[in-house]
Structures are given as C-alpha cells and as structure tokens.
Amino acid sequence: MKDFSLLETILYDPQQGFYLLNLHIARLLLAINDMNKNGHDFGSVESKDIINVLQESVRGNDRYLRVRLLLSKGGVLSTSHTDLDSPKPPLSCSSLVEAAKGGAVFSIVLDNCPSDVLDNPFVTHKTTCRDVYEDARHRSHCEWNPLNDHTPFDVVLWNKLGQVTETSIANLAIGTYSNNKWHWKTPHHSSGLLQGVFRQKLLEENDVEEVMITKEDLVSAHEIYRVRLLQDVVKEAMV
Question: Is 26 part of a structural domain of the chain?
C-alpha cells in the first residue's frame, strides 16, 4: 500500500481563530487511534501538539486562511496554507436555503456503480489516500470546472446496499418541503462516509437529521446541497 498521511483542512479567521477547532482535533485524534490499532504508526499526538503547530503556522497573519494540517507516519505534524476571501457566515442564516441563496448551482451525477465505502478507514477518516473518490470521479467523467455545461462537477457515491453516502469532496444534505417548512436530511454515517465537521455542527444544532438515504430518495429530493466547511452551503442539480 502506498504511503499516506492523515489530514485536516481548517478555516482560520484572524478575529476568531480556527473555526470548529475542537471538532477538527477530535476527528484527527480518533483517526490516529483507529489507524494505530490497524498497524499504521502515527505516534501519540495530543491536542496540545496540534494546537501548538496550528498557532505557529498563522503567527502574525491577519488574513483568512485555508490551513492544511498533515500528520505523517511517526507522528510528524506539518502545515501549509492558502489565502481565502472573507467567507460568508452560513451559520448566521436562518436556513440552509438562505445560506445557499444567490450562489452558483453546481452539476452533480449519481455514480454508475457502488463504491467500497462500508467500514473503509480511508473513507471514514480524512487522509491523503483518495482512491475511492478519484475512481468515482473518473467513472463519471467529472471535471473541476463548474462552468462546463457538458460534464458534471461532482459525483455522488453510494454503497453496495444502495445507500447514498457523500460526494467526492463534501457531505450532502437533501431537502423536502412540506407543511410550509423545509426538512433536511444527511446520509447516516454507518452508510460509509467521512463525517465533516460542518456536518457535525449542523447535526448538533438540529438543522439536519441523520438518516439512511437511498438513491431514489436523492433523485426525488426537492433540493440537494453540498455541505463543506470551506465552501459553506452549495446548491446542486442532478444531471
């Protein structure tokens, strides 16, 4: 197996610090524990080690940043970052619909075969090994160009039980409108997916419900949103 690192991608706000840092740290520590149990030596990294490396990486910086935190074998932490425009605060909106209002609509396609995602540690944990996602993108002829009308921008993965999981780069939320209100659901973690920190926050605040979602549920949804920390909430259209 090729070498890989554990990964977290974190939003840095110069006024408020690292967004959802506690959730990022908890997710990384869980990944370290699970990977170490399965014979991958990622050392004995603690919360304070992660915080120290992150704080040093943004010292003296007054810009919004996308900070990429890597943990390599042996417990070696490293960071890199890129500048961001000031992100809109989706959580200040009253609904997911409002958060996505006015933004671009991205095209997505349902993968044409199931992916090996059930109990797959390279899906349930965020790593640099993205073979499952890249294979799905290749099968679906996705391109990293949201303005291309002829090819999808992203693909929705599903497991061998016919349950929808996530896209190649983000979690999903599907909405139905009834009784004058929106009802939002996100695929259950046991279906085989990476549990994003923004998704976790939405669950904790009861903005979405975690349920099993079938391919048929996805196709019949009134709205489909891609939920990703650094892209806020993005509306998508099935093609």
Answer: yes
